[in-house]
Structure formats: structure tokens, C-alpha cells
Amino acid sequence: MNNKNSILIFPLMVIGLVLIIANGCKKDENNQVNSVQIPVLTTVTISNIMQTTASCGGNITSDGGSTVTARGVCWSTGQTPTITDSKTIDGIGTGSFTSAITSLTANTTYYVRAYATNSAGTGYGTIISFTTLHELKLPTLTTSAVSSISQVSATCGGIITSDGGATIIARGICWSTNQNPTNLDYTTTDGAGNGIFISNLTILTANTTYYVRAYATNSVGIAFGNQISFTTTAIPNCGTVTDIDGNVYNTVTIGTQCWMRENLKTTKYRNGDPIQKVQNILVSNQWSILTSGAYFNSDNNYTNIYGNLYNWYAVNDVRNIAPVGWHVATDADWTTLTDYLGGLGIAGGKLKESGTIHWDSPNIGGTNNIGVKIGATNESGFTALPGSSIDRDGVDYAVGYLGQWWTSTVGGTGTWGPWTRSMKHDIGYVFREGRDERNGFSVRCVKD
């Protein structure tokens, strides 16, 4: 071989070798690109399904050889959701993730699956279907008939036939003297849940028309049953009675007795003689030194509500402070009254005026069957008021705290004096005590 041919062949060999090497590198690069695949993942079970939301997620077990740049869940009412449908975006990378699905429609079936995207494309998990809960609604209920109607109380209730898809958290009866009562009026609270409930309506006014509706509350709001009206019974009475001053008193029949519903206000004995008036009980011991009949009256506004306070000398005077045909209640009269109402231990709540317009708070009437204190009901119609009292030294106790009434009966051996009855704002008891004749107390009269 001559030198000229050798010189030509050698460069050609070098060029061929370079091409072979370059071509081999290109094939390796193509093989590397072709080895990247879409991610591998699963869809997590649906949980926390509500009317408009649910929880889901996924678990990416392989990124396919390329970083996962987006992941989440996609859903649709169609059976094959993709990332062109509704979706969440829940970070990047492999592993588990949780997704919050929102803006759903109640009572609708959806299909959902997890997705993950890398440079090769988007991979999907298994498709799972679920149905959102029914739309929450207000409860459905009816108002039960009213029964056991008295002057001051009644029984009612309701039947909840549907909770609207949400737990009943409160139920009861609302009532008013106006139509369509709401929970802003008088209400009872009678537990929770569906079904039948009974309600006791108290502190009503005699001979008055009321409107009642059952109510039930869930997370959506409050719903009311149908409206029912009823009228409390009238307080049985024996007419009115007028004293020597012309004061007219309402009456109430309790058991076999006819009582005044108001404290005595007279300033004269039955024969027209004046009863001594003491205006300022502390000046020169005007009250404490008395041994004859007298009454205390700070002003007419007080008397119009509470009547006058008398010492026992006026009560015991032979000229009589009671109107004709009536007498100051005896110890036996009071005992008959409280026995008829269940005894001294509970009669106070049935005798005291209800509420705190005149009585101090709390105006307790007793306890219910589970031991909870309840307010005075005045269910007897007696309407006992806290006219206060004056002690034998002329000290006047605050109006609103208690009411105390003379009897016309002399106390027994060992007592302080004539028998009295008293009631206090914070207890439903009626107290029977003997007290000094110089005290100033209210007076109630009973028909002969």
C-alpha cells in the first residue's frame, strides 16, 4: 500500500468511529426519555360525607421516574372524572395526601378519583362513587291539644315527626296572648330529639285567652307547629265586698271558703269610728308606745297596692275592722286554707302572686319533681303580696321581702302573742308564728 492511500483511509476511519460513538449516545438518550412513566397511585376511601362537602385523597406509590408536579382528586357526576372536571390541588411529590371536596349538591351521586401529574402525563387512582346527604331542613311537628286547664296553668306538648336531617337540640311550647307566639315569648324547654313531648304551662292569668305552638330547633333553625288557642278558667268568686270607707275588694273562692283577694285598706271601724293613723312610725316612738288600735300608711300609692298595716289592737277591737258579713281570718281559717292547698310546706307558692313585679327576686314557689326550684304560681287566686311589716319597736321592713298577716286568734301558751301567717320571697313555705301585739301586719278577711 502506498503512503498516499494510507493518508486517505485513516481520516475516514476516525470520522466513522466518531459517528458510531455519537449514534450510540443518541440511542442512550432516547432510552432514558422513554423510561419515564405516569405516576402510580390509589384513591383513598371517601369520608365525612355531608350535604355539600366530603373528604377524600390519595396515595402516590410511584412518581414514574419524574417528579410529581401536581396532585389531588377530581370528581364529576359523570362516571369517569378527569382533571378537566372539578378538582383539588394538594401539593406535589409522592406519598399520601388529603383532599377537601366542596361545592357539592345535596342528595347527588358523584364519582371521584385521585390524580397525579408528572412530565409523562397524569395518572389516576381507582374511581369511587358516593352520594351526598339529603338537604337539611327545618323540623316537622304538630302541636298537641291543650288539657288540664286551670286559672293559672295548663298542659300541652307536641309531636316531632321529622328532624329535617339534623338532630333536634331543643323543643317545647311557646305561648302568648298574641297570635303566632315564638321562642321570644314565654316558652318551656322539654328535652331534645324526635317524638312526643309534654309541656307544663305555668304563671298564666285567669280568664285569659292564650295562643300556643310547639317548637323544635335543629342546626337549620327553629320550626313551629300549628297554633292552638285556649282560655284559662275564671277564678271562682263570691262577688265583691265594700268596706266602710267605700273600698271595693275582689274575692276568691278557695275550697269552701270565700276570701278577699286583697289586703284590707279601711281607715275606720265598722261603726264609722276612725282608726288612729300613724304616718311616721319612728317619731317619738309613736308606734311602739301604742296600746290601742292603729294603722300605718306611708302614702296612698302603697295602700292601693298592699293595703294598710295594722297593730293587733285594731284587729281585736270590738268595733270590728272587717266589713259587715265578714271577719278577720282566724287561725283556724288560715289552717283550713293551707291544708286545702297541701299544707304549710307548699301552700306559699300557691298563695303568692307570681312574678317579681311586687315580690323580690327570686319569688320561689317550691320545687318540681326533680328538685329544681320553681316560681310562685298563685294558682289559688289568693294573690298574697309582700306588704312588709312593722316590728314592735317601730322598725319598718322593706316592701317586697315578705308579707305577714294577723289572725284574730290569741296565741297559745308560750307564744309571743296572737297567731300570724307569713310568706317570704325566697321560699314557698307558709310560716305560723305568734307575734307581739305591737307589730304592724296586713289583714285578710273571710266571709262569715
Describe the model.
- It is a single chain.
- The protein is of the alpha+beta class and 448 residues long.
- The chain has three domains: 40-131, Sandwich (Immunoglobulin-like), CATH 2.60.40; 140-231, Sandwich (Immunoglobulin-like), CATH 2.60.40.10; 240-447, no CATH class.
- It is built from five helices and 29 strands.
- The protein has helices spanning 3-34, 300-306, 312-315, 331-340, 344-351, and strands at 40-43, 54-62, 70-76, 86-87, 95-101, 109-118, 121-124, 128-131, 140-143, 154-162, 170-176, 186-187, 195-201, 209-217, 222-224, 228-231, 240-242, 248-254, 257-260, 276-278, 294-296, 309-310, 326-328, 364-367, 373-375, 402-406, 419-424, 431-434, 445-447.
- Strands 3, 4, 6, 7 and 8 form a five-stranded antiparallel sheet that branches. Strands 11, 12, 14, 15 and 16 form a five-stranded antiparallel sheet that branches.
- Strand 14 (209-217) and strand 15 (222-224) form a beta hairpin.
- The N and C termini lie far apart (164 Å).
- The model is unreliable at 1-6, 18-22 and 24-33 (pLDDT under 50).
